[in-house]
């Protein structure tokens, strides 16, 4: 690798975490940070807090904590701002979400009550199952400006030196990249003309990126994965990442598929169904929003399995993904997969996976890691797409001309080697022939 | 990496595949090779036959087949020899094993009938559930010599230029490395004294290694993972690998555990049970043989999860492995796993995996790959432990002072980067920062 | 019970089995009968062939075979006639269905080839995913007459003394009982006016019932469960039964739900999903046909659980049924259920059931039993709805004013006690207090 | 039925519930009763509290609550006494058991703290994994007398008019009925001689039965299923029932097996494994205690399937039951079953059931129902074995010469028809031919 490591500014001062959407994910994240600071819980699932990075040779046993290896913002420097189309404060929203135990929420009550969401830029055409009662009014341009004003005022009030925005709102209806998204100039014009085809999520990202604030997209919406936004991010030196937090079933899929591929076992079919009963489940009960999610969920197998290179193994794969709203479960999602595989001489085998997971519990540490790593990237002078954060996302963004990496282990390697590169450490290849030929 | 690539002798002439044990795995392997040569099936699951290796940058799309990238023996150059304590020829043994469809076996009948096993070096103390009726007689030393004579005669008869031995026999009772195993001199002396503690499997390996023939151990037996054998392998320039083919449940475990570890999800318990009804199941119904297998199966989680580095996540893990002989299933093993995990703030989740697999179907391509890669290693001048073949094994051997890699994806990376290194290609690190900073 | 047992005519002569639909179920049934007659298989799943009935006290051990207790037609007296909108004979259709092994079908080839379907009364509006190429032409009245002619000619040709018709065709689109179905007169008029709302399945049943031939409905179609047909059946003394063969998942549901109910465990949710890849799966991929099936599948829990009597336990039950067309599986359906139950003080528990079943293998013995029992009912002078055959059906028909019994064990008791009643034996109540008070 | 209904004494005054063993089951039961009385929970799972009984014809819709149909003791008339080898009171024991939420236990604290166990008659030879610290001393005879004194004193103190004893203690090691058990005289002699082969559980039952107090056995121990005890029960007019509460996996087995049998589907194998982490799991980790449980669990399939009558379907069934101590789960047991079935022509299918249950939650309502029904039986003048309570038990006791009924639905019918008989109502047969022949 010839690229020299970047120089990285220190993480001094407060870091504002800006969260469009104050629902199950955001409140689990915020309440979790408070609980961790008070010693009531541990940040399980977070690489930035608990992860280690191996340096040097296997025999050296040099494996520092990531947070002691790279300069990250400290948890007690975080301050939280949020928007929502429902006026509940974070305490009320956390109780409604039903993810964390009421006794824990009660202990954090005053901290959570202090987080009152700003009005949302909401348009029901984009989220048909929700009814906004706490919304901004105005043209698309005006809405973007109001969001920007919310940000500016919050930074001033808190004295935060830096900010990061992580979309934790709902899945919008399916849209495709069009002429309004094709360039920054076209987008600016669309905003000026109050073009209704511009999704609300874009307005939040626009407000952040114009201020050079990093942005990550936790939903499968079309937001920063359009040319206009990438142009803007490069102009303002803002790192971006997206899209769609990789949590339950898709996480499992990007763990298992690389394993089957590694062993060159063929796959005839992969059937995935989900039952969940939270707001997310209700929103996805709308076929338009489900379409957006489905595209994101279906995409992962292609680049892991590369059927064009392995047609005998993967070209006939029948991949089906279902999501069913099932209220008895609340936030405790369950994903059931059936995988029809075949081996030596074509003999058939089956794998079934039942994952009793918790959506927001899996998403919260991703919000934290994306926030801290995007802030690191910003301080390291990195801008635009941060492919090394693919690890956290169902539909990772990549530079034009590259195929995305969905294999969780290639993503992990990329993330870890990026950290090593940032700090001037040797890349790890797992060759290790030197141990035997010394 | 400073090690220069080796020079590799061409794969000319016939390659003898020597198989102690002519049961389900061996017959599925041999019949499969014949079926593939006759166009009746495809070598699914074999990297040497179907795998590709990515070279250079992601944008170059250079992904040749492995068998066109490194010089491997061709399938039609393989000849098969075997030993078994039952006198059935490969046709009879394949029918009894019940793995392949009788109609397929019928088509290969004459080829299979020609493979008549040599008498085995068998000692019932080491495999209590089997009753040998087709056995050699003599002291330990004499048995080793008889095996050697079988090999020499076979090479002469077939004109094979090279040979590889792959243990496909049963799991022996649990034994630990002792003074007889501590050095080659001690082992020689034990053979001379007809020491009954020397397991039959060691006699086969001894016969192979003294001839410089590579050896891989498909069972969890203590065989080449003792100082005496490694000394011998280094002396005669024989590559060795072991031990215990990584097939169903443990394969799944070394796929899934790295994924959970990557995401820093904690694990409280991992319960694994297996039902199988083949000869393997019957042998493992003996507590002594099960002990050998259990140790092998339990070992994998430790170095993947590294509880010493992640005590909050993995130090309380309760790991239980059961195997139950269940005749209704025959060779169609079923592995059921329950994994109790926890995430953000300690919230509990569960994963259940039901793997309806086929033991010998998964093992057969491993036999093939180990044979061809060990032969490649031999021609490349590599000797002793071939850690890069860990990918195929439940309990990979490593040089003293190193911990084994059980993570399937580190193993895959090691294997692929070893092939790249052998051919003088650049190592892949998945950093990829150059795409974005060009 | 005061009703006197009926007198039963003997089962002499041939019995014609008339099957609308010559697909997977019909061919598995017909080929199975031939295989059984030739000693190539056993009629597993058939009460008429393998079942026994307990008579008298537990201590008497009097448990004759049903077929030796009641006078049933013998398997070698059966002759088969069928209609299909595809011209394949039973041999070709059986191969396409992919249920039975080709080697078995080959052995029965000449018998199966002799069964050439008559042209079907087909209307694509009622089965949108199929394309009929082997169809009758004419008005609804004319089609019914042509079906009748097929029957008359077949009885004449084979010399059969009796006949039974069992619908084994596809699921039609959802329709509701309307004015055309309200009386026999209205139906006659609708036929005369070539009313297109009359489903093809009704034409087959009409042709059978006008001849006094018993009819059972294996699909969830609206056919004999309309007043017009019941009027006709009573007029012509034809027994009828329906509807929808109770095979995989619903069978399991009517086994398990009575057990949970018996123990008074509450149920919050029951999620059922199915994957199947046969023609049935393809037809049900059409939302209109699925609706018909869904109504049938959802109905079973109500009368088993009686939420009106047990509101604390069952009134909030969320019941969801999905069917997904998944080609990799063919006829080997898989049903996965998740059941959220609660016990003492409301504590939650879960049950998951994965049923790897075979649709036609489960349906074939039902066809046989319904045919033989309906023929018995006819000879016993029973007419109209045969509720005692509910045991075999997802949506059992009952007399107006009665609720249907879905509990498989009440259905079994009803069937067995009906057989006892027919032969003048004592009813079984399982009281048994006399054993202890003698 | 010629037996006249009994006359039943009213349920006036207090009823003492005597519980050997104050562990998870007892405390969940006692705390549950208190919670129900305070309106903090509902007696889900209890027929005596929530069940109804259908009377007369289906059209009459006469389905009173059982507790309004037969005269049962009221919940607020219950008083609780218990013995345990650990001195914890019911509050402490409930917290340790970890079944109920601490917040609920806290609300019931004073009521629970008042229940202080009496010292136990404990012998470690019979429960090898437990260490008693709160035990009586003396010969077998003396221990039985001390237990009797505890009972007498408790009845006097509480003023209870009646009592019932339900064994809720641990599973003892496997023992077989021997000469000491063969008659009451032999047992008396064994007590006099301090025969160490007499299990502690027998001493409790002896103390109860000599006082005419009904006894039910919730564990698989050999206790009242010996001739000596039945002789005693008949002498003192004490009703008895046993043995082994039918809760999780076995409950499921006696639901499912009757369904498969009803449909005449064959079964090749039934593999059952359990993971649980409570004290029960720890006790059963001892092979001797497991043996006792295993015999009880294995017995159920025989009389449900009757392989002697259905040899083609059930004579080759391979039945395997495993229990694994798995601490991560605590009282939340999980049972996984795989069932290999076959249908028409022998084609194979599979059923897998995963039951995430809660042992004590399922057992508590059984304790309640057995207590109230045994008290009813006593007041109705019934004595000795109460076969109609088989519904609640894994290994139901029956009169000599009868086979036990394990089919849950026959058991339910027997229970319900017994209640109908007691109150002079018509037996239900599910024939229902009169609806159609009126």
Question: How would you explain this protein's 3D organization?
Answer:
4 copies of one chain form a homotetramer. By secondary structure, chain A is α/β, with parallel strands linked by helices. Helix content of chain A is about 40%, strand content about 15%. Chain A contains 18 helices and 10 strands. In chain A, α7 (about 140-160) crosses α9. The radius of gyration of chain A is 22 Å and the shape is globular. The two termini of chain A are about 25 Å apart. The model of chain A has no long low-confidence stretch (mean pLDDT about 90).
The CATH topology assignment of the largest domain in chain A is: Rossmann fold
Radius of gyration of chain A: 22 Å
Q: How helix-rich are the residues of chain A, as a percent range?
A: 25-40%
Name the helix and strand elements of chain A from N-terminus to C-terminus, one letter apiece: EHHHEHHHHEHHEHEHEHHHHEEEHEHH
Oligomer: homotetramer
Please tell me the overall pLDDT of chain A: 91
CATH superfamily annotation of the largest domain in chain A? NAD(P)-binding Rossmann-like Domain
The computed structural class of chain A is alpha/beta
Which stretches of chain A of 5+ consecutive residues score pLDDT under 50?
Answer: none
Beta-strand content of chain A: 5-15%
Number of strands of chain A: 10
Q: What general form of chain A does the structure show?
A: globular
The CA-CA distance between the termini of chain A, in Å, is: 24 Å
